[in-house]
């Protein structure tokens, strides 16, 4: 007797598995509000960065005072510095590229330390010389001044030929307001010296006798 085994139909005994649906529970509206807020903040941050860069691009180098400067003061390089800042179009200022041009010029207005140097404060209309100061002219021959001397330099005016003390010849602090070659004497220069009014008469007398020499010193140095 032959036994016949019948194979189960395909799929018989096999259980079908269903993947449960994932349900996003509650708070959908809140999530969208947070997403919108995040996008808004990101956009605002980007815009503020662009505005900051634009403002940075508007900054320019301008000349400012490196100390308190009175009206009538003759500008030297040590009186000034360059600062990068944004300035309104209606403010008078001197661009950094013109820094060397203003050295030797006279202030018509006082400028406080860190203040913008106004273009309008440069000129010859100041109350000048200022109180307790005097302007003295002198002709100096070669050898009586440094060859590199220029307008705005701080100098010590050395008076020669007087009765000298044990300390040596007398010397007085001054500023060179202007300096030009003397067309009549080779190597000689004509200078204007801004000096203390207390020293002006003695320096002028010595100058007329050809008894002064100039020594360039540090702007805040001594005689």
UniProtKB/TrEMBL annotation:
Record-given protein name: SAF domain-containing protein
Keywords from the UniProt entry: Membrane, Transmembrane, Transmembrane helix
A family per Pfam: SAF
Protein species of origin: Nocardiopsis lambiniae
Keyword Membrane: yes
Transmembrane segments: 32-53
Database matches in SMART domains: SAF
Domain of life: Bacteria
Positions of the UniProt region annotated as Disordered: 1-27
SAF domain segment(s): 60-123
């Amino acid at each position: 007797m032959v036994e016949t085994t019948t194979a189960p139909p395909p799929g018989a005994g096999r259980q079908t598995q269903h993947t449960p649906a994932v349900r996003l529970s509650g708070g959908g509206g809140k999530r969208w509000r947070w997403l919108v807020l995040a996008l808004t903040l990101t956009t605002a941050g980007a815009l503020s960065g662009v505005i900051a860069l634009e403002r940075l691009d508007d900054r320019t180098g301008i000349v400012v005072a490196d100390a308190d400067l009175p009206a009538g003061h003759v500008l030297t390089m040590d009186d000034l510095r360059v600062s990068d800042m944004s300035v309104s179009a209606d403010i008078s200022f001197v661009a950094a590229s013109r820094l060397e041009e203003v050295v030797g010029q006279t202030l018509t207005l006082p400028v406080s330390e860190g203040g913008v140097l106004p273009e309008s404060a440069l000129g010859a209309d100041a109350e000048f010389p200022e109180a307790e100061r005097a302007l003295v002219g002198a002709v100096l021959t070669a050898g009586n001044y440094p060859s590199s001397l220029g307008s705005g330099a701080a100098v010590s005016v050395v008076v020669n030929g007087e009765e000298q003390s044990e300390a040596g010849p007398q010397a007085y602090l001054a500023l060179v307001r202007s300096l030009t070659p003397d067309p009549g004497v080779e190597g000689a220069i004509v200078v204007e010296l801004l000096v203390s009014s207390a020293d002006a008469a003695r320096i002028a007398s010595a100058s007329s006798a050809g008894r002064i020499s100039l020594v360039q010193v540090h702007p805040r140095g001594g005689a």
